[in-house]
Fold these 3 entries.
Entry 1:
Amino acid sequence: MTISKTSVIVILLKLAGKLPLGVAQAIGRFLGRLGWWLPTNAKTVTKTNLAICFPELDAKAQRALGKASLRHTGETIMEIPLIWEWPVEKCLSLVKEIEGEHLLQNAMNSGKGLILLAPHLGNWELAGLYFSSRYQMAALYSPPHMPEFEDYMINVRGRLGSELVRGDRRGLSRLMTLLREGGVAGILPDQSPRGAGNAYAPFFGMEVRTMTLVSKLAQKSGSNVLATYAERLPDGQGFRIVVRDAEAGIDDPEPVIATTALNKTVETCVRALPEQYQWEYKRLRHRPPGQPNPYYPDRICR
């Protein structure tokens, strides 16, 4: 009998999901160190991003930040099976403190919906599970490259009733309905969008293609906008949920003003915890037409 690739991945996730947090994180740190020692693409992209985003750091400091970033990325990879496979109560017990609780309370007491921006910072899977345990929530997601893996992902992420909606017309309509009902919409704001619905705005000083979805949802629904992330505490102690205000202008009808505020919101979060950001992602690859691609300097953006 032939076992599908998806079945193998799910089996491995379930096995990894039996690990204690400390063991999973230790394995993740080892994988991250390996990713830096070897000539990996993750190392190359991380070094490129840090050189652009932190020019004030010397080579030694950038190298130290790069190594720490890949270690944390390794930890995130190994934590995901735990968040997907552990009982919900055990996952939520990892949240040891909350910073910015008053911002959440004020937003929900206003009677308006709430758009939660969750950058790829810390453990975003735990952040999503935490907020879905408290509110009626839907999260925007991109379907995996393996369609048969989608059902598993939807089931584990939606254990507390959180909806996962695609970024198509139907999914966006559902987000709008939920926000108008006073619910919460979770969005990963630091992805490089394709197609229409974007503008160019600065991110760490470089103009990059940025989604206009957040501003459109905020304008049409009148919702509040906050940013959040789950900060990994040292020595396997768990996580701190951090909630921050979004920058003024994030709901501006002018796309460049709104996307500049969106990127500034993300940048503020990242600067507070730069070692836990996913720097191996090519966030800066879509620049204005005619500009060089920072990851492939011989290529021109179109």
Entry 2:
Amino acid sequence: MTRLPTVFVSHGAPTFALEPGLAGPQLSALGRALPRPEAVLIVSPHWMTQGARVGLSRLPPTIHDFGGFPQPLYEIGYPANGHPERAQRALAVLQQAGWSAQGDERRGLDHGAWVPLLYLYPDADVPVFQVSLPATLDSAGAWAFGQALAPLADEGVLIVGSGSLTHNLHEFRAGHGHEEAYATEFVAWVREAVQQGDGARLQRTLEIAPHAQRAHPTTEHFLPLLVAAGAAGDAVPARVIDGGITHGVLSMDAFVFGPARP
């Protein structure tokens, strides 16, 4: 079986489900262009746990884990099947790599998972299971976590890290009528790192990139990018999918790592 690429997507605000903007159609085009996976493994910062957990549900429910948004958003479901067999395999590879991991038969798909999947696979016809983001990860740990999951990309599983290339919620809530310069400068720096395949530099993004603290006051929405890159193994150079910047401060970029890039 041909190794699948790994993918990082920015899921932005929950309203991305209703407002596709520039990124939505591009994710839909990506879903059509990628080799069809047997299952999607998705890591989201909206499921953080002590140690790792792997969703084993055959019918994972859609979780509306947000408040104060338009009612139509709460009426959206993403009725994809789970894939307990592939999820058990993910659990095994994590444990074999020395990670503390356990299964969860009840967990559904949070909005960090189902919102981008609405565009990647709008027919919900590809099985999906979620893997939590261990709460104690730093940048090196997120990379290593991705490396532990990497064997699954050789077994028909599309590994997706879902986060946000920039994620300052205070500024998002304050509202911005134009793109903030700090966000565009941070995005340009990260794009250069991934396009050059500079994994060491990428892992130091939150230490050395311009405006890193402002772009990510907390780290959890950046770490899924490192999980996806770490899972790509030696295939770190990435194709950039320009998703634009919404609400002035939220970059919606996606990256596709690996030789099977469309």
Entry 3:
Amino acid sequence: MNRLPSVFVSHGAPSFAIEPGLAGPRLAALGRELPTPRAVLIVSPHWMTPRPQVGMVERPRTIHDFGGFDPALYEIDYPVDGHPQLARRALDVLQEAGWSPRPDGIRGLDHGAWVPMLYLYPEANVPVFQVSLPSRLDAESAWAFGQALAPLADDGVLIVGSGSLTHNLYEFRGHHSHNEAYATEFAAWVRDAVVSGDSTRLRQTLALAPHAQRAHPTAEHFWPLLVAAGAAAASLPATVIEGGITHGVLAMNSFVFGSAGREGHGDKSIV
């Protein structure tokens, strides 16, 4: 198998599981387009630990780690297998890169993992295992964490960073009759950095992009983008999966980094 790309997915709110909007069908199309991986490794801000942990569970349960949403969400089960063998490989590459990882034999998949998987692989026929996001990251170390995981792409693993292109929870809870300009402008800035292949500018997003503090009052939902990009640093620029904006403030664009993601598309958006 040729080297797989890496993917950043905006998972938005948990309601994305039942409200596909623009992003859902396009992620489903991406799942059909990509070469079938041996497994998906997914990093989500909803599992953060001081040192990275790697899920070793044979059959990870579906975790409903949210409250106050449509009751239908709590009935969803994503009955997927894990992949302990490739999870062990993830432990090895992280150890070799100096991250001192630990195995986890209990935890299932949080909504940052299973919600996007509902679209990418709706049949739950591709094994999934999760790697926790280190809790003390900055832009450079998030990028380095992706670089540490990069060898797995040569082993048939699809590396997915799941976060949100914008993530202001206070404003999400409000009622918005239109898309907020700050979310649109921030998303456009990031899109330009990604499409132009400017990795330095991308790593400086939270310092340079317009409205960065408002788009990300805390950074944990942005770091998975840098993890995914870092895992394919030799393969910038990327393909854009246009997802629009939901709830007026959640930008839903996703990105595919690597040649498999650009096959047949050049550096154009998937619209």
